[in-house]
C-alpha cells in the first residue's frame, strides 16, 4: 500500500505540463469525436501545483452540454495518471473563438465531412452575413445556407447546390 | 426566455427551425447558468447573517447555495425579470417577434456590459454577445419574412406587434438596484441603450413592411420589482416541480 502511494507521487512529480498537454490530445469532443479538445482550443492553461494540477478550460457556447462530459474526462485521465488533486476551472474570458482551432483540427473536420470555419472572428462580416462555404464532399463553392443553427450550437446547416448533399458548417464564432 | 423557447422543441414548423430555436433556448439557459453560478458564489461569500435579507429561505451553512437553489427554490415574487420573457409563445410570429425585440435588447445590453468593472460579469457578457449576435440575425430574418410575406403571415405578425409592444418599455426603465449598479459601473444604464435599440428595431420593421409604433403607448411594468404576470407562476410550477417534490434529487 505504501509503495503504491510513493509510486503515484513519483509520477506526479516527474510529469511536466508538456506531457499533460499531450494527454489532453487524447480527449475528444463528445459531439465531434474527430476533434480533440486541444484541436478545438478548449484547454487554455495547465498549472502544476504542490498538491496536484489545475486545468483551465473555456466553453465553446454558454449552454454547451459537452462541457460537463469534457470536464469529467479530463478529471478521469489525470486521476488515472496519479494526480491526487485535479481542479478544473471554467474560464469565460477571453471568450472562446474558432480562431483558436488548430489547422490540424480544421483539416480533420473537413475530412470528417464538416466544413471548417471560414475567416476570422474579429472580422464582423463573418459573424453577420451569409458566407460562401466550400462543400467538404465535392469542394464546390456553390452552396447555400439551410439553417443558421445545425445539429449542435456550434454548427450551421448548409447544402451543396452541385452535389446536392447537405452538410454541417462549423460557424465562425 | 430560454425556458419559453424550449417549449417549441419538437413542435417547430420544420426540422431546421425546430433545431434553431432549441439551440437558442440552450444558449439562453447557458447564459442564465453563468449568471446564477456567479450570483451563488457572491451570496456564499457574504456574511451569513446578511443572507436572510437576500433570500427568503434558510440556507444550509455548510454547503451554501448553488445555481439550482436560485433557479428552483425561489418563488415568483423573488424573481426579477422582464415581463416579455414570461408571456406565452403564441404562434410562430409572436415567438419570433418577442425573440427579436428581446435579443436586440440583449445585444446592446451585453455590448455595454463588457466594460463592467466586475470582471466576471464582463466575461459573461463577452461570451454571450457572440451568441446573441446570431439570435438577432436569425430572428430579424423571420420578422422580415413574415412581415413581407403573405397576407396571412403579415396579419399574424402585425397582431403580434400589437400584443408584444407594451412589454418593451420596461427594458429601458431602470429599477432602483439597476441604477445603483450602473452608478458603480457594475452594470449598464439601461435607458442609454434605448436609441440604439429603437434604430435597429425601426430598420428591421421597415424592411418587414411593418409600422414602428410611434408615440407614447401604455407600457407594462413590474417584473423587475417582483410583480409578475400570472404566467410566471405556471412556468415555475413546471420548472420547479421535481426539486420541490423531491428536494435535492439528482439524475
The helicity of chain B comes to 55-70%
Shape of chain B: globular
Characterize the biggest β-sheet of chain A.
4 strands, mixed
Structural class estimated from helices and strands of chain B:
mainly alpha
Overall structural domain count of chain A: 2
Keyphrases for this structure?
heterodimer, A: 173 residues, alpha/beta, GMP Synthetase, Chain A, domain 3, three-stranded mixed beta sheet, 6 helices, disordered N terminus, B: 251 residues, mainly alpha, Ferritin, 10 helices, globular
Could you characterize what this model shows?
The complex is a heterodimer of chains A (173) and B (251). Chain A has 173 residues and is α/β, with parallel strands linked by helices. Chain A has two domains: 2-90, Fe-S cluster assembly (FSCA) (GMP Synthetase, Chain A, domain 3, 2-Layer Sandwich), CATH 3.30.300; 101-170, no CATH class. Chain A is 31% helix and 21% strand. Chain A is built from six helices and seven strands; from the N terminus they run H-H-H-E-E-H-E-H-E-H-E-E-E. In chain A, strands 4-7-6-5 form a four-stranded mixed β-sheet. In chain A, strands 1-2-3 form a three-stranded mixed β-sheet. In chain A, strand 1 (43-48) and strand 2 form a beta hairpin. The longest helix of chain A is centred in the middle third of the chain and has 15 residues, at 66-80. Chain A starts with a helix and ends with a strand. Mean pLDDT of chain A is 85; it is low at 1-10. Chain B is built from ten helices and no strands. Chain B has a single domain (2-245), classed as Ferritin, core subunit, four-helix bundle (Ferritin), CATH 1.20.1260. Chain B has helices at residues 2-6, 15-45, 51-54, 67-72, 92-113, 119-147, 151-164, 176-183, 194-207, 231-245.
